[in-house]
Amino acid sequence: MVKYALITGASSGFGAAIASVLAKEGYGLILTARRLDRLVALKKTLSGISPDVIIGVMDVRDRLAVNGWIDQLPVQVKKNLDILVNNAGLAAGRAPIDQGEVSDWEQMIDTNLTGLLYVSQAVIPLFKARTEGLIINITSIAGKEAYPQGNVYCATKAAVDQLTKGMRMDLLPFGIRVSSIAPGAAETEFSLVRFKGDEDQASAVYQGFTPLDAKDIAEAVQFIVTRPPHVSIHDLVIMPSVQASATLFKKD
Ligand code: NDP
Ligand code: 8X3
Fold first, then answer.
1. What is the per-residue pLDDT across 167-223, written as a single tens digit (0 to 9) for each?
2. HEC string of 199-245?
3. Among all ligands shown, which has an atom nearest to the Cα of 13?
4. Which residues are near ligand 2 (CB < 6 Å)?
5. Disulfide engineering: 208 pairs with which of 169, 185, 202, 252, CB 3.0-4.6 Å?
6. 190 CA distance to ligand 1 centroid (A)?
7. What span, in angstroms and rounded, lies between the C-alpha atoms of 9 and 31?
8. Within a domain: residue 243?
């Protein structure tokens, strides 16, 4: 019986790397994001490795679309959905609190927090029906410690950190495990998105030190999903060796 994992934000960075490790673990994949071309390419890559790869355009901010898309999955897939990785997210801009763009704030809150709630609410009934399931929320060091000009992004990740604890409590009676992973600086498309396509600004973030890469986080997911059923990993904080806090780096 193929077990399935649903990954949000699978078109890039952590999500794509997580898809790859879960394919190697033998999971069927349900890969979602907004960019279909990326998902099509990833499906092509992983189809020989995973027993089944389902892709779909899903903007996590659109509650009706989230519910509709998850609802239309084949019954056998929904019955065997075992893992949800709430990974879709972004930082938009970096500015002092009085100078932030309201549209950036809304995009971060709607994606990182509200979108994660929408997807979770659509999936949890499927897990409850099976009395098992695993939810992995991708938080951030930014949710543990705020940093200058990170304000709203940090707040969304702090909210998901708390939400993870609350979900774990509410889902305890149903055999559903809830984990979080809080990465430090990782070189993905994250900074390119944050700085709205400015490659110089984005690459400057990772100058002078070796950041994490997406595989580092995917391997942490692999660790979580391969624990036996009596073990729950609550929270992993994973940092580059030269990053001691949200703001303290040892750079060359
Ligand atoms: P990427 O920009 O490489 O990937 C982000 C993913 O989120 C993309 O696949 C993107 O897909 C998806 N996404 C964004 N908005 C939406 C949306 N509205 N609906 C559905 N999918 C969406 O960055 P990362 O891989 O680094 O980021 C993944 C997660 O990790 C995020 O939650 C981020 O906050 C978190 N994180 C990142 C860190 C880092 O330093 N890189 C450190 C700590 C946490 P598409 O555009 O196709 O929709
Ligand atoms: C992304 C890491 O420190 O740039 O969550 O906010 S950081």
1. 999 999 999 999 999 999 999 999 999 999 999 999 999 999 999 999 999 999 999
2. HHHHHHCCCCCCCECHHHHHHHHHHHHCCCCCCCCCEEEECCCCECC
3. 1
4. 140-142, 150, 185, 190, 246
5. 252
6. 6
7. 8
8. no
Q: Is the CB of 35 under 6 A from ligand 1?
A: yes
Model confidence band, residue 3 (pLDDT cutoffs 50, 70, 90): very high
Q: How far apart are CA 203 and CA 200, in angstroms?
A: 5
The amino acid present at 99, given as its one-letter code, is: Q
What single string gives the DSSP state of each residue in 13-46? HHHHHHHHHHHHTT-EEEEEES-HHHHHHHHHHH
Q: Are strands 81-86 and 4-8 parallel, antiparallel or unpaired?
A: parallel
Q: Is 246 helix (H, G, I), strand (E, B) or coil?
A: coil
For residue 219, what pLDDT is reported?
A: 99
Could you tell me the residue range of the domain that residue 102 belongs to?
4-238
Q: Would you say residue 248 lies in a domain? A: no
**Does residue 250 lie within any of the structural domains?**
no
| Domain of residue 14, CATH code | 3.40.50.720
User: Strands 133-138 and 81-86, how do they pair?
Assistant: parallel
- Total structural domains within the chain: 1
Look up residue 151 and give its amino acid.
N
